[in-house]
Fold this sequence. Notes:
- By secondary structure, this protein is mostly helical.
- Helices cover about 75% and strands about 0% of the residues.
- It folds into two domains: about 140 residues; about 45 residues.
- It has ten helices and no strands.
- The longest helix is centred in the middle third of the chain and has 24 residues.
- The model has no long low-confidence stretch (mean pLDDT about 85).
Amino acid sequence: MKTEKTFIILFLIGLVTMIFDIPGHVILLIISSALISILYFPTAFYFYSDKTLKNQNIALSIVGGMILAMAPIGCLFKLLHWPGAQVQLLGAIVLSAILLAITYILSKKSKDELKTYYQSYIIRIIFWLALSLLLYTVPKNTIIKIQHHNDPELARLKIQAFENPDNLEFDNALQNHYRQRDSLYMIENP
């Protein structure tokens, strides 16, 4: 539980540093989302029930771990504008919603010693479902505008380059803007 919370906090810090365009946010997002997915997929049955196998539904933990491992990777792909983000997020949303329904039904029929397990599991599912749903519905252009709110010209050029990947003029204009920005930084901060 503590390990999972630590990785999620690192992921959220990476998200905040991305919003403020702080260098290093990409590395933080990649490492934290990869660690969360690794934590969920092969070791879900261990982490979901406070490290005891008897106070959980092992099959649900393993299947749920596979499903929840999709959400952080889908979020990462969306935030970094990598291809396949929408498909991963949609898969995570649909499967998490099904998992939530199944978990809720099982929690109503469960014994008292499993109530805590199901309760924490439902909270975990709702968190990743909500984040996946939010990022699925937010357009790429909006994410770019938020990230580069201090440099609207960079946001405009980046949006043009993403919307027209085959047009080299837009890509060259974006690269020139980066070069000008970097050279101004070097002149101002020798």
